[in-house]
Amino acid sequence: MFLERIASPQNLKELSIKELNTLAKEIRELIIDVVNEKGGHLASSLGVVELCIALHYCLNTPSDSIIFDVGHQTYAHKIITGRKSDFRELREYKGLSGFPNPAESEYDLFISGHASTALSWAVGLAEAKRLKKDKTKTIAVIGDGALTGGMCFEALNMCGHKKSDVLLVLNHNEMSISPSVGALSNYLNKIISLPIYNRIREELERFLKHLPDFAKRVAGKAVKFEEALKGLIIPGIFFEELGFRYFGPLDGHNLENLIPLLNNLISLHGPRVLHIVTKKGKGYPGAEKDPEKFHSAFAFSSKESGVVKIEEEISFSTIFSQKLVSLSKKDKKIVAITAAMPEGTGLNLFRDVYPERFFDVGIAEANAVGIAAGFAKAGLKPVVAIYSTFLQRSFDQIIHDVALQNSGVVFCLDRGGFVGKDGPTHHGVFDIAYLRIIPNMVCMAPKDKEELEDMLEFALKLNRPVSLRYSKEGSFSLAKREKIILGKSQILAQGKDLCIIALGSMVREAKKTVALLKAKGISVSLVNARFIKPLDEDLLRSLASDFNLIVTLEEGILNGGFGSGILEFYEKENLLNKIKVVRMGIKDEFSPPAKRGKLLKLYSLDAEGLYHNIIRLVNKFSCGSVSKVV
Among residues 515, 296, 317, 337, which one has the least CA distance to residue 416? Predict the structure, then answer.
């Protein structure tokens, strides 16, 4: 096996092209085997195996810099760069990250989990190298989906303007592509990437600068010949107009063509694009047939058939979408918007029933929010369904385009809280803090699936900016339904010793904790907060009269979070001298990748951890009738 011989990228250079092709198959087998066991981003990583091999074969990494956009395509990169022996701990707690991570390897420059970022990083890095007279190369690898992001377009503009020494590898993995992928395109790219061709071109351009205007116009036709030829055959005019040299499209799985072309392009300078075409999920039939399903797959139920294990519980995403479809049947003003995540958010159900009212803007969250503001201004009821972590990318649009206008946009934040093995780039732990500070916003979090349905219906009637956060986990029912009233909480248990105010996903753990405390003779009131903003101020005043200890629970960052809002209220009311408020949530750090249950335990947010921490608080403050608990 050739894979056994690969301890670093330098070992690739010892292999022939034929041997590299065999290595690609071995790497695919390892990726499939590990994802079969651990789950992970299968389709995207399988699609770029040859590209990762070719880049490391042609470059001198880590001196030369490779920056991967999004980063979920880097499994082959990790295997090649000395992490093969650790690869079976992919996406495990304290194991390998599913994304690039500089703490893990010098071959990873940035932690990249969001799209459209790599080219901006690459331009900054390349310009820094220019200032430092560093001659090493800078390569950015992005997918065609990243081109829908505004940040990527801004970086293209800057790179072309500054003539930054960046090679942009555009990985196009759509099922079909221009027929110019083939022998003629390969031949043309070989010619126009050869060093001798480019020396002649550069000399000609310098010569033309010194000609009279008439001669310059005539001789300039020679330079235009290349552009005209490529304009007829190769779809690169867009990049050429932005100041890039364009090469492609090229078969991204053909190492015989890819390696010589890369070697030629690496020797060039300035902004250039290599456009490759790959097949998502290549080498695994199930992923090739349905790459969206295998984008971030659970462990397989059958390695041979490529069937993905299905969660037994119906997800909150599905509950949300089913309710939205039901409401939209009665209300034709409802429209749904997502940013390249119809499957992940559950909006594929809405799309199938109401395709004319469904809008997928691609990886462009800021645009999604801006479009929603336009819908609201026209009197429609836009529902924007985006993962919590990705909605961060539209913070200014939420403030300026929606909240400042007091527009009726409903933000449905999927993956609120811990998301598991995707780790810190994907944990949705900041939305409570970054949304509750915005004027005009109403922020809610349901305790269970029935409350999610009721809150969605309530939000669509408010005609003002509303956020609704729910977790990735399977849905469940916790308690009887009670009507949703703006800013009003729900009391789930009455006690006399202390009070727990739990938000959204933490209500379930709080209920278990109350039962454990009851067995110790501690009587606890439990409040389902429902609203992050506005707070139930009447209830909070009442609680301050009844208890000397109030514990807040949230699956979000503590700094500026839900508990901070409660503290701010009691400070405003001059009540902090009467009561002790203890906030429990996620401390000031980026949380690691791990299963949600493991992370709750790590931060003492599971029932057992909450129980022990509350016992310590009771012993410290002598709450109610309880003075000491052993």
Answer: 317
Q: In the prediction, which pLDDT does 291 show?
A: 56
Beta-strand runs (E) in 460-596: 466-469, 490-493, 498-502, 524-528, 531-533, 549-557, 580-586
Residues 456 and 495 in one domain: no
pLDDT confidence band for 421 (50 / 70 / 90): confident
**Which of residues 439, 469, 499 is at a domain's end?**
469
Residue 51 lies in a domain: yes
Active site residue 578: no
Residues 331 and 257 in one domain: no
- The confidence score (pLDDT) of residue 236 equals 74
Q: 91, 137, 230, 393: which is the annotated catalytic residue?
A: 393
Domain match, 234 and 327 both: no
> φ and ψ at 252, to 5 degrees?
-75, 0
Residues written for the chain: 630
> pLDDT tens for residues 328-370?
999 999 999 999 899 999 999 999 999 999 999 988 999 999 9
Bridge partners, 550 (sequence order): 499, 581
Within 8 A by CB and 6+ apart from 420, the residues are: 472, 593, 594, 595, 596, 599
pLDDT-based confidence at 468, cuts 50/70/90? Answer: very high
Predicted confidence (pLDDT) per residue in 359-402, tens digit: 999 889 999 999 999 999 999 999 999 999 999 999 999 999 99
Residue 407 lies in a domain: yes
Determine whether 163 is an active site residue. no
Where residue 505 sits, what CATH number does that domain have?
A: 3.40.50.920
Residue 402 lies in a domain: yes
What is d(CA 411, CA 339) in angstroms, rounded to the nearest whole number? Answer: 12
Q: Are residues 321 and 273 part of one domain? A: no
Is the preceding peptide bond at 593 cis, omega within 30 degrees of 0? no
Q: Are residues 456 and 509 in the same domain?
A: no
Q: How far apart are CA 363 and CA 366, in angstroms?
A: 9
Distance of alpha carbon 306 from alpha carbon 543, whole angstroms? 54
Is the pLDDT at 84 greater than 70, yes or no? yes
Same domain, 537 and 611: yes
Catalytic pick among 137, 280, 447, 449 = 280
Specify whether 359 is located in the same domain as 225: no
Q: What are the C-alpha distances in Å from 56 to residues 123, 146, 286, 319?
A: 20, 23, 28, 45
Whole domain around residue 573: which residue ranges? 491-621
Mean pLDDT of 397-408: 97
The total of structural domains in the chain comes to: 3
Last residue of a domain, one of 235, 269, 286: 286
Side chain identity at residue 280, one-letter code: K
In a domain? residue 602: yes
Based on the fold, state whether residues 397 and 277 are members of the same structural domain: no
From the list 92, 365, 451, 555, the catalytic residue is 365
Look at residue 94 and tell me whether its pLDDT is greater than 50. yes
Three-class DSSP category at 600? helix
Res 214: pLDDT: 56
Please give the average per-residue pLDDT across 164-183, as a whole number: 68
- Rounded to an integer, the average pLDDT of 53-74 is 92
Is 393 noted as a catalytic residue in this protein? Answer: yes
Mean pLDDT of the chain: 88
